[in-house]
Amino acid sequence: MTATREARASTPTPTPDPTGTGRPARRESQGFWARLRRDHPVLLLALPGIAVVIVFQYVALGGNVIAFQDYQPYLGIGRSLWVGFENFSILFSGDPEFLNALRNTLYITLLQTVFVFPAPIILALLLNSLVSNKVKQAVQSVLYLPHFLSWVIVVAVFQQMLGGAGMINNFLRSHGWAGVDIIGNPDAFYALITSQVIWKDTGWATILFLAVLSQIDRSLYEASAMDGATRWRQIWHVTLPGMKPIIVLLLILKLGDSLSVGFEQLLLQQQAVGRDVSEVLDTYVYNNGVIGGAWGVSAAVGLVKGLVGLVLVLVANKIAHLLGEEGVYRA
Fold first, then answer.
1. Per residue in 221-260, pLDDT tens?
2. Secondary-structure breakdown of the chain: helix, strand, coil percentages, each rounded to the nearest 5
3. Is the pLDDT of residue 318 over 50?
4. How far apart are CA 269 and CA 275, in angstroms?
5. Main-chain dihedrals φ then ψ at residue 70, nearest 5 degrees
6. Handedness of CA 147, 194, 314, 318 (dihedral sign)
7. How far apart are CA 78 and CA 160, in angstroms?
8. Cα-based torsion angle of the residue sequence 206, 211, 214, 216 in order, rounded to the nearest 10 degrees
9. Average pLDDT over residues 91-112
10. From-to residues of CATH 1.10.3720.10 in the chain
11. Which of 4, 53, 162, 206 is most enclosed, with most CB atoms within 10 A?
12. Where are the beta strands (DSSP E) in the chain?
């Protein structure tokens, strides 16, 4: 019996066979060309998408050269006159329209950071607290739907609800009350566009947070419950720390895109409230470039906006590293 045990102990354990071919798996990693031959069907399927990204995201960057030209469409980039940094003077000359667009952009960015960014986190926590998976899936399906509606449809829905001839005002007038001016009221414009963004995108944005919540070890909740932690304490000490990496990552990406605050949404409602409250950097570029013909100035504003977004991402990522988080990339 002892000899049998010793023989079994000395027998090497066979290498698992994940391929099902009867041969043990090779331990050494495959070379580049071997992986290329193996994965070439998938790479061929990805080529159209890669080509689109290269053409429209990287090759198009060459068009920023018109920021240094007195660009005329009928002359093209090659024949338009070079003016150096003259187009950038509008950034420092105190142009009232540009300063108004910059002020509105920063204010809307602040509102969206304070109210829109935390909304999917709160909603994800509420959905995660639902006991029934069927109810959770049904609620998620309803919440995801507005994301697939274009801004034309979303603005039309809000106009039908809150417009001067909308459902709410018709109801108020039918009962002898005065109507409420919301759609065309500049004082209510920022609250209106913030509520539109929350209604449209909050449900879809919960996907990432719900995925992170599903990966948190359930034993942590059980241990905290045994220690007497309430539901709020569990959220504060278990749930939010588990969500911290994805929150930091998305916040960094949000800062990089902070100066883009909804071109289509604002342009569709600009006529109703006027450009004084609705003009932002994106609509400024459109109104002065495409409509006004100041292509060089508009390109200069857009180029500076992109550079500012890049700097914000790098700075925020560095701060994340100092706080012990990975951020967008590792240090």
1. 889 888 888 888 888 989 999 998 889 888 888 888 888 8
2. 75, 0, 25
3. yes
4. 10
5. -90, 75
6. negative
7. 49
8. -100
9. 89
10. 72-322
11. 206
12. 69-70, 81-82
* Closest by CA position to 104, among listed 229, 247, 263: 263
DSSP 299-321: HHHHHHHHHHHHHHHHHHHHHHH
For 28, 35, 234, 281, 328, the CA distances from 32, given in Å and listed in that order, are: 13, 5, 47, 46, 27
Residue 247 tokens read as: 């929150």
pLDDT digits (tens, 9 = 90+) for 156-192: 999 998 887 888 888 888 888 887 888 888 989 999 9
Return the pLDDT at 29. 57
For the record, the structure tokens of 228 come out as 């007497």
Torsion of CA 56, 265, 112, 202, to 10 degrees: -90
**For 77-112, b where at least 16 C-beta lie within 10 A, e where not — what string?**
eeebeeeeeebbebbeeebeebebbbebbeebbebb
Convert the pLDDT of each residue in 30-45 to its tens digit: 788 888 888 888 989 9
- Distance of alpha carbon 311 from its chain centroid, rounded? 17
Q: Which two tokens stand for residue 298?
A: 């508009």
What CATH topology corresponds to 72-322?
MetI-like fold (1.10.3720)
- The whole-angstrom separation of Cα 229 and Cα 110 is 35
Q: Token pair for residue 209? A: 């947070």
Round to whole Å and give the CA distance between 89 and 110. 26
Q: Which of 60, 100, 102, 70 is nearest to 295 (CA)?
A: 70
- Given a contact cutoff of 8 angstroms between Cβ atoms, the answer to whether 192 and 200 are in contact is no
CA angle 70, 72, 74 (to 5 degrees): 160
Tokens describing residue 276: 């004084």
